[in-house]
Structure formats: C-alpha cells, structure tokens
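Narrative of accomplishments. A recurring question from our advisory board has been how the design workflow behaves on a single, concrete structure rather than in aggregate. To address it, we present the structure tokens for one chain from the evaluation set, followed by the sequence designed for it. No filtering or post-editing was applied between the two.
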C-alpha cells in the first residue's frame, strides 16, 4: 500500500520527467523555427507572446524552485535566450527569489516531512549535517547561495528548519542570488551559443 510520501514522490518524479520532456520539445521547436538561431525570429516570438510571456516565465521559475518540474539551469538559460541578457536575468531573479521565499516558508511550516517528499534521500543525507553547524549555518548558507556550488533550492528548504529569521533569509537571497545567477545563466548561455555555432 502506497503512503502519502510515496505518492508525493511519484508525483514529483513524474512532473519532473514531464517538465524535462516539454523542455526538450520546446528546444527542438526553437531550433526548427529559428527562435534560438535567428535574432529576427526570436524578436518576433517575444512580440507574439506579448506581456504574458514574462509573467508566465516568472511563474514557471517560481514553480520550478518549489517543485523541480524543470531543471533550473535550463530555465535560466531559456530566460536569457528568450528575453535577452538584462530582462532574462531580471525575470530569472524575480522568479527564483519569490520561489525561494515560498519554499523557505513551506519548510518552516511543514518541517522535515515536506523536504523529504521533495528531494532524494541521498541529497537529504548529504546536506542535513549542515544543521549541526548551529549559528554557523547562516554563514555557510550565504556562501552557498553566493557561489553556485550547491543545490540552492534544497538549502532554502533546509534553512526553513533553522532559527533563521525571514528578514535574514530574504536579505541573503536578495543579495546573494544575483552573482551566482549571473555567472550560472550567462555561462550556460555562452556554452549553448557555442554549440549552436558548431551545428
């Protein structure tokens, strides 16, 4: 008999697979229609979407932080490619900051079971020891958010289990996210553009 935890994990795994497949379909569509290879086609696509494009994208970014339906790196690159470096960065930043605050609040309210439903046991076991650092957790957390070296979304959940205040958490996210997001998204975008030139 399936428990609620098992059902939740199955739902999340299925959602992640569907999200990944839809992302691949969109990438193939983008290459075939010239969205990712022609500035003119990209500009026309963005104009066609209109004001709903940025709103939908920000919502997608919020959702992918809370429930990993799309790999975060892919959605960050998509934002930069679709909206350009400046607006792509801003929309990525806005969605990820809002999503991070939501997931922090959910972890604080629902506790450990909420986190264990969303992440693999390996990831949970790997980073749960950070809570043993007590007052030093805030420093490790801020460093991890500033440098793109750890699963930020999971660490935001983990922070919800600590005594960290909402004010401190929000300050760390707002100040720490821009640097890592800029390096991460622009780095992956440069790699993707290099691959496009090779094709």
């Amino acid at each position: 008999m399936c428990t609620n935890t098992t059902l939740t994990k199955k739902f999340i795994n299925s959602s992640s697979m569907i999200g990944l497949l839809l992302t691949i379909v969109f990438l193939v569509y983008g290459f075939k229609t010239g969205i990712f290879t022609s500035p003119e086609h990209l500009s026309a696509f963005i104009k066609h979407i209109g004001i709903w494009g940025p709103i939908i994208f920000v919502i997608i970014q919020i959702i992918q932080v809370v429930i990993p339906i799309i790999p975060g790196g892919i959605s960050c690159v998509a934002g930069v490619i679709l909206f350009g470096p400046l607006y792509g960065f801003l929309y990525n930043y806005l969605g990820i900051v809002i999503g991070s605050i939501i997931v922090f609040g959910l972890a604080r309210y629902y506790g450990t079971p909420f986190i264990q439903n969303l992440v693999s046991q390996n990831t949970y076991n790997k980073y749960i020891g950070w809570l043993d650092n007590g007052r030093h957790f805030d420093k490790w957390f801020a460093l991890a958010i500033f440098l793109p070296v750890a699963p930020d979304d999971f660490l935001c959940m983990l922070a919800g289990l600590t005594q960290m205040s909402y004010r401190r958490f929000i300050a760390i996210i707002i100040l720490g996210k821009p640097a890592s997001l800029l390096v991460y998204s622009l780095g992956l975008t440069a790699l993707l553009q290099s691959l496009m030139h090779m094709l």
